[in-house]
Amino acid sequence: MKTRFNTYDIVCVVTELQKLIGLRVNNIYDIDNKTYLIRLQRNEEKFVLLLESGNRIHTTNFEWPKNIAPSGFSMKMRKHLKNKRLESLRQLGMDRIIDLQFGSSEAAYHIILELYDRGNIVLTDYEYTILNVLRPHTEGDKVKFAVREKYPQDRARENKTISKEEVVNIFENAKNGDQLKKVLVPNLEYGPAVIEHVLLKQGFTNATRIGKSFNIQEDIDKVMAALTEAERIFQLAKQNHEKGYIIQKKEERASETAEEFYSNQEFHPILFEQHSSMPHKEFANFNEAVDEFFSSLESQKLELKAVQQEREAMKKLENVRKDHDQRLEALEKTQNVDKQKAELITRNQELVDKAILAIQTILANQVSWEDISDMVKDAAAKGDPVAKHIKQLKLEINHISLYLTDPYAEPQDSDESSDENQLPPMVVDVDLALSAFANARKYYDLKRSAAKKQQKTIESQTKALKSAERKTKQTLKEVQTITNINKARKTYWFEKFFWFVSSENYLVIGGRDQQQNELIVKRYMKPTDVYVHADIHGASSVVIKNPSGQPVPPKTLNEAGTMAICYSVAWEAKVVTNAYWVWGDQVSKTAPTGEYLTTGSFMIRGEEKLPTAVASNFGLEDGCVERHLGERKVLTATEEDALSLADSSQSKEEVELEILDESDEDNLKEETNTEELKSSENIPETTQVEGDDDDSSDSDAGPKFPDTHIKIQHVGGTKINILTKPSTKIEENKNEDDVIYLGDGKPVVLKPSQKSRRNKSKEEIKQQSQSKRGQKSKLKKIKEKYKDQDEEERQLRMEILQSSGTGKETKKSKKNKDSHGKDRKTEIKLPKPFFVKERPEDGAEDDEANVQVDVDMIDALTGIPTAEDELLFAVPVIAPYNTLSNYKFKVKLTPGTGKRGKAARTAVAMFLKDRTITQREKDVLKAVKDEQLARNLPGKVKLSAPKLQTLKK
Predict the structure, then answer these.
(1) pLDDT tens-digit series, residues 132-166
(2) Level-2 CATH architecture, domain 7-155
(3) Which member of 336, 359, 459, 913 has the greatest number of CB atoms within 10 A?
(4) Considering only CA atoms, which of 898, 899, 908, 893 is closest in space to residue 945?
(5) What is the C-alpha separation between 202 and 253, in angstroms, rounded?
């Protein structure tokens, strides 16, 4: 497969790229350490020029994945080339070197691209002094490619016309038998494709060889005519734009149902003679052909891999068939040989008995084995009729080998067919412990045994072949399905980070390292987004994308805080720490002293204090998205009550219980008492608001409705401390009928099954609450604490916590409705920005469009697929366990000793064993690559799930 430009390709592409002259450099990016993108623009004209060291240069319309953080070489080019105009683009001589000049006179800079050998990209100033070089090295003893060295402009080979005498000299120096094309290619600048093309035009095939089918004196004129044609092709390419062609090869598919697949082999500016009979695709220009060729390499690799897997599956099936055939053939041959040996012994019974008796007699006289061998040889030499038939003594196994012939065979002419009953002579092993008749019977028994094996093999062959064919068909089907899934798989922009979608449909992203932390804050975080960080050095910077700009609900803040803690050293250390959150405009790269902070470090003004599982999201077809809208939304208190009542009766076997020990409870009480003491001592500066909210814990120990204390201090900036502690205050639903009022005020009539589950759950809650120790004293404390609280104060506190409480409209709330019917709820004022957040000058516009459609993209992902959904692919996600509580496929992760890769594979294996899984869900789960499964795991883990040990066994 062709993967790099030759000289003729460079001539053609340079001619086409002249249209870029006059465009200014908008920005520069790097795809990898060898491939760079230069974005050029003039008014409405926009082009992206791709440079790959050693391989290619062309414009591209394909969206290439850029590196997360620009490399040092990219930054250097940005510094010198940004906003410069492309003044010239030329090929140096006839060599594979291209010089791009940006800017003019003393402000000019050059990018020199080398497309031969290992390749190189060199950045120089107007005097060709090297400012940066992609691959520093030394050529010979003098020429150095390093910073501050001069780039040698005269190193390129010039185009020169070769004379007839020089061509004759080339042929005379060649060896007899050398291929004509291979002799000319290294001595000319036209390239192998052009030379082969012009030689074929003159009647010279690839089989033409010097001194055999080629005569120098007779054929030199044809060769010169071919070289003249090659020169004409080059001159035309320098003046006119050529079309583009991709030469293809039809791949033989093992599966008859699979579509025909043509793999791309080569790209060329013209359709050469040697490719005219091959399948090919034509393009308007050479740039388009090259762009299509390289942009489709990845999908082509998937198809080629599928073709290879199909071939291997069919090869296994063929091997099974061959193995059975070979077994049957061997058993048939064994039967024939054993039968012939038995008949030979029978027909030579007297001779065999005499040989056995002679050897037994000598052995009875206690003669050594070496002497016996010598005696047999001497007797055979003297013409003994018995001894001359003994070919070998195998006394260690009590056998002798006799050369036996058919005594009843009649001599026949060579041209006549032999008698079927005539036995061929052969060496037969005879057991000395048996008579001739017994030896013959032994061979007959072996023949019958082989016949039985043959019959069993024939009987099992049908079943084995059918089983192998069924497995092969299933393999072919899976290969094709997985290939189609991988082709349809969308790579979302946020997958390069740690990420998950919160239970309230907020996209949460986190950096994998310092560079990604820097990138998230600079490029992806907006002032309305929320920045979350664990209270530990070196943790991931977590950002909650908040397109609406409204306050982010506490549940999502809690989940993001859990993520920040898990993606830190706290996971490996198995410790729990706090997490903090601030608004996006409270994050800065500048310290109070004016010092610029290092990569991944930020200055935070003000902070709010905050108190995991692997699953699979499924990509939905556009028509199925509407069915899953509202799966992840902000739930009110009553909605959560209804969900918890329904869920409590459905799942009685918990995956894993989170239990606090006595020390944890003491610390929690001590921390709470300290905060209460501080708030009571500092009444003028502190406003305390207390309210009830539901805990989203998944424990079966009993319902928990934590009292949340919000402490607001006005010291240099707003500081909100959110602390949670267990509470046993149970709020019964005020309506005892079959209607539940949700947070939006809409009544929902429960079905009989839901009603029975609710009543059953209430009875269980009541029994559990009565049986818990210390419950009465806690209820007494709560009653004493909230004895002066009225309904209005409670409602205000619930609104501060963004919960609608009971969900019913009070008389006062009805009065507060404005003329348009909207509620006048208490607003929580956002902190005012301390500064304008820094924005990068480069690259921001690339991702703006992607970031703007966050909600649209995550709405197309669901963790609760239905049978009616058309699933496109699966996306593994790591998130707090409460976030994934309603997902169909999930397994709990805790810090442990298991390796990430093995844990991820075990999780998928558990998903595939699910009884409710559909075939399409199996297919998309199998298509997920191992590296995608394990890359987001926080470290060494332990899996927790029902019947997990049974699965491992």
Answers:
(1) 999 998 887 777 899 999 998 888 877 777 888 88
(2) Roll (2.30)
(3) 359
(4) 893
(5) 37
